[in-house]
Write a structure and sequence with these properties.
Layout (H helix, E strand, L loop, with lengths): L1 E2 L10 E6 L28 E16 L7 H9 L4 E11 L7 H16 L6 E8 L6 H13 L6 H7 L8 E9 L2 E15 L4 E9 L5 H11 L18 E6 L13 H23 L7 E9 L2 H13 L1 H8 L6 H8 L11 E6 L2 E7 L2 E2 L4 H8 L3 E7 L5 E8 L3 H8 L4
Parallel strand pairs: 4-5, 8-9, 10-14
Antiparallel strand pairs: 1-6, 2-3, 3-4, 3-9, 6-7, 7-8, 10-15, 11-12, 11-14, 12-13
Helix pairs in contact: 1-2, 2-3, 5-6, 7-9
Function: Catalyzes two activities which are involved in the cyclic version of arginine biosynthesis: the synthesis of N-acetylglutamate from glutamate and acetyl-CoA as the acetyl donor, and of ornithine by transacetylation between N(2)-acetylornithine and glutamate.
Keywords: Acyltransferase, Amino-acid biosynthesis, Arginine biosynthesis, Autocatalytic cleavage, Cytoplasm, Multifunctional enzyme, Transferase
Pathway: Amino-acid biosynthesis; L-arginine biosynthesis; N(2)-acetyl-L-ornithine from L-glutamate: step 1/4; Amino-acid biosynthesis; L-arginine biosynthesis; L-ornithine and N-acetyl-L-glutamate from L-glutamate and N(2)-acetyl-L-ornithine (cyclic): step 1/1
Amino acid sequence: MKMIPGGVTAPRGFQASGVHCGVKKGKGDGNQPPKSGRPEVLDQKKDLALIVSEKECAAAAMYTLNRVKAAPLYVTMDHLENGVAQGIIANSGNANACCPMSHENAEEMCALAAAATGLKAADFVVASTGVIGQTLNIAAIARGVPAAAAALSRSGSGDAANAIMTTDTVKKELAVTVAIGGQKVTIGAIAKGSGMIHPNMGTMLCFLTTDCAITQEMLQDALHDIVPRTFNRVTVDGDTSTNDMCVILANGMAENPLIEWKDDNYTVFFKALSEICTELARSIAADGEGASRLVTCTVMDARSEESAERLAKAVVGSSLVKAAMFGADANWGRVLCAMGYSKAPFRPEFVDVTFRSVVGEVTVCRQGAGLDFDEDQAKSILSQDEVVIEVDLHEGEHQATCWGCDLTYEYVKINGDYRT
């Protein structure tokens, strides 16, 4: 397995693009007059992404578990009912959720993409991210789609990754190659996610492409097993979005032996897909709104993977734990407290807690009781870019890892006026 550049266009047969069309009302889009009579500086943030395959693809998807789902998810579900697709169109700046004309506008985005690429509207997955409750500026998208189609290229993955960002501060783009049946198979991805993120996905979009020859059934099974162990184990702020989507398209152009059973070739593909989704999940947690560090919690020696996951989610989701991580405060009592209300079974008197990072580790709790430790050393450990909270239950053989971030003043600033 080898990480390579190229994102969603690294696999054979895929092109992508990202352009600015002015979806979000604001500077430079003609929707608001200049302030104080002075010209506004144009905001040329890319906000429309297009991904297209040369050939029809087997397609699979996972969606938010929020009962309130945005219109693009329902349209995508309809379009993927036959298990195939050939392109993805996505916008940032507006979620197209809980607003007038949402379903019609999601369908229109697919129709616009189809007209510009010579495909069918039903060939497209559609996704949106941004402000909820405001009608989508479909006129801006109509102006932008021809430019996005004209810009499609084998080097367009970075532009597409930028176009789906909202409050993200870094672009999330990866690709990996593996050998399957003597052929090089590539999986590429772009993702976005920074806030409104809680287990069961969050305001996150992930678009995966691969040239692997694999049936839709095997593709769906792989995604169904991997998403709960990666994206569904990320939390930033306790909010699960209406727009989450993880989609994978496989065009078969690697010409490897078709994967139609869970054989050795499936295992290789599964491990590569799991690796890329794990790295993206970590990058989403690390880029949490206002975050200054990635917080990883691994619960080990648990009675079951389910209980380990529930405990780890409770720890990284705790506002008090997150605040302690921001302050580099080794307040391990908050870890046990979060575990205690998780409703997962465990024996508190067996629990060990260790904080670790690249500069070292310190055990702060053993068998449910506090230990004397060097506060300065602990602060140094907790001041690094990634902090690991390691919890040993000493009760079984299972473990799970979840990812979150610290809670900072900047998070409140970002979300205090997000809509306006």
